[in-house]
Amino acid sequence: MSNIPENLRYSKDHEWVAADGDVASIGITDYAQHSLGDVVYIDMPRVGDKFGAHEAFGSVESVKAVSEVFTPIAGEIVEVNDGINDAPEKVNSDPYGDGWFVRVKMDNPGDADAMLSSEEYDEYLSTIG
Amino acid sequence: MRYIPNSPEEREEMLASIGLSNGADLFRSIPGDVQLGRKLNITDPLSEPEVIAAMEEMAARNTAATKPSFLGAGVYSHFSPTIVDHLIQRSEFFTSYTPYQPEISQGTLQYIFEFQTLICQLTGMEVANASMYDGSTAMAEAYLMAQRVTRRNKIVVATSVHPEYREVARTYTKHGDAEIVEVAFDEETGRLSDLSTLDDKTAALVVQSPNFFGCIEDLQALADAAHAVGALLVVVVTEAISFGLLKSPGACGADIVVGEGQSFGIPMSFGGPHVGLFATQEKYVRQMPGRLCGVAYDKNGNRGFVLTLSTREQHIRREKATSNICTNQGLIALAATIYMETMGKKGLQEVAMQNAQKAAYAKQRIAEIDGYSIAFDAPTFNEFVVRGPRQASEVLEKLRTESNIIGGLALSKYYNERPNEFLVCATETTSKERIDNLADALG
């Protein structure tokens, strides 16, 4: 059973988004961190980098794999969790809190609402097993 | 595992067990019109004494290895202790392959780890890889790495960096978006002093020290200038013995150190195989190319070695790989490791000192000759440029034919505008007598 907080939005690529006005915080879900195993490094973009919806903005490396991380919404990076590579295990232990990756100024603040709700994401997870 | 070819009887038996009667049947699935259909055009087998005679005849043409020679310029004559060849010819070392399976390759991985550690100590850097093909390709890879790290495209490189290294780097970067800007050295000193092309588009400042002319660069000043514009300093070292005497590039602020390890007990071999060195700071390790060996501990707390950070490599992540190199110069790096460990700190310092002293004596003797002078006034290690009264190629040809001495390298080979100058190298293998003979022959 993976943890899926109700107040967040989700993507089928297993990212979560927390919108605060026009700034969205992005990270990976509990399901993702569990599938990856122990995270050892996150390859981050730079503040000012711009991405379109579903573009890869970085990658997360665990002991057994490297996965690209996608931004579900289009926008510009305004903040990067610089300290995460000093304690990458936070992505495993606190994926929705201290394990956040980036903050994005959304091109369209409404984009986050179009993402999956926690129930929809939960349902999606049950289909992929 | 030993390689023993199969006998004709064994081959027949194997073919029979799969229902075939001759070896050509194994290739039935290849269309007849693309099959060669004839024997390969190679000579008949030779006997052992005939092979030896043929090889000796070919080897004898390599006069730089046998005549008194003052050649350097990127490949150096040094003494290799007998133990190096003796140990690397052990079959466990000589035939072993890349250590993909750490559980059965701990010996190989251990010596790679030792090699990396020694290179870190000598270069003054935090991390080194398991080696590159050679110094020139290591330098080319450093250009690419600097571009990735800084996200800039301009590479500023001094023309006092080995001309062939710059040519290789041009080949490597030809189809990418690197903008290579070459800057000339100071005519008086032989060092790089013109830093006007450094700007906020520069990914790296690339210098060689000691440079192609043997001059030792002021690396600290160059590091400061590069860092002031947010660029990396890449230091190229073609003569590894210089690590035994000069302040390490790491201590001077280098961000990437690349070079050639041939001087560490590897034969000149008419140009190769040699071994590339590549070292950088920890913060850039994920952008470094090449094989990397790390130390780890198993579940019982026992130490082991393993290839690591493999996501940099193309067989793991093709488009995002830092390079297409997925190998190293294993046996040569092992030979270099045995050399470094045999010589030790003191031995390396002593051999470096002998190089410097022999070259200083040669410099002094030649400078005394009428019509000859030392071209550049920066301090040098074991090579220096001599300016003569006429065409260097003529001077050197006369030395070769009349005195049986290879006096050095005419700079006109690479620098058209320097017809009367030649590069002279003296190492621990150059006797005082030979230096005196050279000076007497020039005078």
Helix content of chain B: 25-40%
The figure for the number of domains of chain B is: 2
Strand content of chain A: 35-45%
CATH topology of the largest domain in chain B: Aspartate Aminotransferase, domain 2
End-to-end gap of chain A? 11 Å
The structural class of chain B is alpha/beta
Q: Provide the residue-averaged pLDDT of chain B.
A: 94
Question: What CATH architecture of chain A would you give?
Answer: Beta Barrel
Q: What is the fold-level CATH name, i.e. the topology of chain A?
A: OB fold (Dihydrolipoamide Acetyltransferase, E2P)
Strand elements of chain B, count: 13
Low-confidence segments of chain A, ≥5 residues, pLDDT <50?
Answer: none
Sequence of secondary-structure elements of chain A: EEEHEEEEEHEH
The rounded Rg of chain A comes to: 13 Å
Instruction: Please compute the radius of gyration of chain B using only Cα atoms.
Output: 25 Å
Q: Would you write up a description of this structure?
A:
Chain A contains three helices and nine strands. Chain A is an alpha+beta fold and 129 residues long. Chain A has one domain: OB fold (Dihydrolipoamide Acetyltransferase, E2P) (Beta Barrel), CATH 2.40.50.100. Chain A has a six-stranded antiparallel sheet. In chain A, strands 4-6-7 form a three-stranded antiparallel sheet. In chain A, strand 6 and strand 7 form a beta hairpin. The mean pLDDT of chain B is 94. The termini of chain B are far apart. Chain B has a seven-stranded mixed sheet with strand order 1-7-6-5-4-2-3, sandwiched between helices. In chain B, helix 7 (163-173) links the parallel strand 2 and strand 3. Helices cover 34% and strands 13% of the residues of chain B. Chain B is α/β, with parallel strands linked by helices and 443 residues long. Chain B is globular, with a radius of gyration of 25 Å. In chain B, helix 3 packs antiparallel against helix 9 (330-367), helix 6 (135-150) crosses helix 7 and helix 9 (330-367) crosses helix 11 (432-442). Chain B folds into two domains: 67-80 and 345-442, Aspartate Aminotransferase, domain 1, CATH 3.90.1150; 82-338, 3-Layer(aba) Sandwich (Aspartate Aminotransferase, domain 2), CATH 3.40.640. At the A-B interface, loops of A face loops of B.
